Amino acid sequence: MLRVVDFRDVVATLDGWPALAGLTCTVERGEIVHVVGPNGAGKSTFLRACAGLVPLRAGAASVLGVDLARDRAGARARVGLLAHANGLYLDLTARENVAFWARATGAADADAGAALAAMGVEGALADRRVGRMSAGERRRTALAVLLARRAELWLLDEPHAGLDAAARDALDATLRRARDAGATVVFASHESERASAVATRTLRIAGGAAA
Amino acid sequence: MKGPGGGAAPPVGRRAGIAAAVAARDLRAEARGRVVTNQIVPFAGLVMVTFAFALDREDVLQRAAGGLVWLAATFSLFVLVQRAFAIESADRALDALRVAGVDLGRVYLGKSLALMVQLFALQCVLVPVAIVLYRVRVDAPGAVLLVTTTICATAGLAFVGTLYGGLTVGGAGRETLLPLLVLPVVAPVLIAATRATESAFRSGGAAVSEGWAWVGLLAVFAAAFGIAGTLAFGPLVDE
């Protein structure tokens, strides 16, 4: 089984504070990993490090076979990170956003409508400007972007936040479908009960290290 | 639609059309927001009218018309650049593009192109305003010089504005920092475009042929900044 994430004794600091303090963990292809831990444990830093956004001070780390010590940005095109912001253009419609992102990331043949429909953004809603959408609708549009981009590794920070019950169910179904299609999903969430239903494994982090 | 992980995509940076997609997106956002139509054109027009009242002598206005047109365009540039990067920072889309490994050099080209189109459209309004308000005249050779000058100068302004707009996006005090950074850099564009436009207007007895040397300078400036900006934008924004 291909190892998608391989961190060994990884140390990373943010403003002098050790956000990751010797983190060792692996994620295999096809897993849906739920990252849990108290506030400040290093969950978000771990996700950002996987996306090549955090310089590593020590240890060895690879993502999708790319050695982050040598090429931190090497895997970015194959990774989809969805953090607190959605990265959408508020003056464009949901459909236009997905189409733009697909084109910009080399998936121009992606079906924006199908990606949006998979996240429950259909009909008139798909043609509504994102700036006029609710927080949950924007979140679903951002997830549709990841789907259209065909990211191999999905890194989601609190993906259930701001979603109503129907959208949460749609998200869980989308994560399973992404996994079935060969993607790997790593997400951090405080909602353990909800997360445990969709996750195939739980990764506990405390004090910047695996607990 | 293929599923995720259904095959590794080629490197994003090699894909054609990213710049065109970014330019189209920015122009679409402008068409929706109508900032140029509803705010910048009236603003630039007011600047031109204010100059007319302030100088208040036909011979002085005719002599200064070229400079006034480009001053109004430069003031408008700051508002256009702020707007161009406001759509990137509203939901941290520029960060998302960076994280997704999109070639930021192509994003730079796309945003510059969109800015260029908007500045050119603005000039299409400002020049007739100058002709009416300042009573300058343009004959056929002058019109060719004027159009070429406008293309080269708006390219230079757009390349500089986009580079510094990217540098200041999301930063504190960017509204005041941007003019401070951009004005000294675009001074050569302002001077060369003014001289070339004076030749096109035949202000102060200038000949049209005298303007073409300034157009050459504008073209070199635009090319140099376009290349440098394409190479530097990604690393600068990444930092």
Q: What key attributes describe this structure?
A:
heterodimer, A: 211 residues, alpha/beta, six-stranded mixed β-sheet, four-stranded antiparallel β-sheet, 30% helix, 28% strand, globular, B: 239 residues, mainly alpha, 8 helices
- Run of helices and strands of chain A: EEEHEEEHHHEHEHEE
Return Rg of chain A in Å. Answer: 17 Å
Helix/strand-derived class of chain B? mainly alpha
Total strands of chain A: the figure is 10
Q: Provide the helix percentage of chain A.
A: 25-40%
Q: Write down the overall geometry of chain A.
A: globular
pLDDT under 50 segments of chain A (min length 5)?
A: none
Q: Main sheet of chain B, how many strands, which sense, barrel?
A: none
Oligomeric state of shown chains: heterodimer
Question: If you compute it from the alpha carbons, what radius of gyration of chain B comes out, rounded to the nearest whole angstrom?
Answer: 19 Å
**What about the largest sheet of chain A?**
6 strands, mixed
Name the poorly predicted regions of chain B.
Answer: 1-15
Instruction: Supply the number of helical segments of chain A.
Output: 6
Shape of chain B: globular
* Strand proportion of chain B: under 5%
- Strand arrangement within the widest β-sheet of chain A reads 6-7-8-3-9-10
Helix/strand order of chain B: HHHHHHHH
Number of helices of chain B: 8
Task: Measure the end-to-end span of chain A.
Answer: 24 Å
Number of strands of chain B: 0
Structural commentary:
The complex is a heterodimer of chains A (211) and B (239). By secondary structure, chain A is of the alpha/beta class. Chain A has helices spanning 43-50, 94-104, 112-118, 135-149, 165-180, 192-198; strands at residues 3-14, 17-28, 32-36, 58-63, 66-67, 79-82, 153-157, 184-188, 201-206, 209-210. The longest helix of chain A has 16 residues, at 165-180. The model of chain A has no long low-confidence stretch (mean pLDDT 88). The longest helix of chain B is centred in the N-terminal third of the chain and has 32 residues, at 58-89. Chain B has 239 residues and is mainly alpha-helical. Classes of the chains: A alpha/beta (211), B mainly alpha (239). The interface between A and B is large, with 51 and 35 residues.
